[in-house]
Amino acid sequence: MRTFKLAPRLALALLLAVAALAVRAEDAPKPPAIISVPTLTQEAAEQIVAAAKAKAAATDSPIYKGQKTKMHVYVLGREGTLLAGTQAVGAWPGSADIAMRKARTSWFFKLPTRTIGQLSRTDQEAKAPLYGIEHSNGGLISFPGGLPIFDAAGALCGAIGVSGDTVDCDELVAQAGVDKAKELGAAAIAQVPSLSSYGASLVLHAALKKCATTESDVYKGQKVKMHIYVLGAEGTVLAAGQQDDAWPGSADIAQRKARTSWCFKLPTGTIGSLSRLDQEAKAPLYGIEHSNTGLITFPGGLPIFDAEGRFVGSVGVSGDSVGKDHEVAQAGVDGLKPQP
User: Fold this and answer.
1) Could you tell me which of 82, 86, 83, 84 has the C-alpha nearest to residue 70?
2) Cβ-contact 225, 319 below 8 angstroms
3) Which domains does the chain carry?
4) Contact by Cβ (8 Å): 328, 224
């Protein structure tokens, strides 16, 4: 086997180059841990609903002959939650669910529901790469009537869903709402803070670092074995990790802890103390665990706030005693704070 030796000068030059690159990487500006994302204001959402309602009241119904359409209208903000809504007297009760699902479908994928339907129809072979997508995200609606709402820069700030008549009428009414948002322009938009992907990675790294030095209450003589999930302001996972041999069942628990804290901007332990029936004076929220597709209300989930006290995301940890889960989650939250 042949070996090669570098000349001393060349070796020195390579070492200096590597050192220079390391210094340059260290000095490179870090991406922001907190970013701003646009959302509709509540006032704008109400005006959008009013515009859609007016359009529905002026649109002849192909179904109710000689009458106008009878619609359900829902408008969501950037977090995917309801900002404003309405329904016409006599509208089909079943259309309430459809309108909300249309709005959420457009919010989920930043596309009109008509477009998603074209991409999922198996009878259109050239346009069906997303067939079966309707079964994801708790159930989607992929026929027309849902539209995303964007700001002037093309960033998503909300969505509208309409149902109650033919799909073309639904979409026509939804478009009236979108047009109103465009008319309002910048006045329709507010900025909300959120963890960035980089900020979420800081939280995850700090939590994993804490795991490496934390003695387990379960695995005697070993360190904790955790699942960790970090969510942003939209409630979606920005960063996640797990340690070798962590309980598989803790993955679901950690994510639900993060989502529980996201839902209510409170530690999961606090929510638990408000829902425990064995603590009568502290149980006004008993049964809350059954809401929002199932919550986790024991410690290990924490909301994350920026330096100004604004909510930006959450972290959920599971894999050991709830005390250890909380310790690791707190380390993750602290990892976002400026280091001395």
Assistant:
1) 86
2) yes
3) 36-193 (3.30.450.150), 196-334 (3.30.450.150)
4) yes
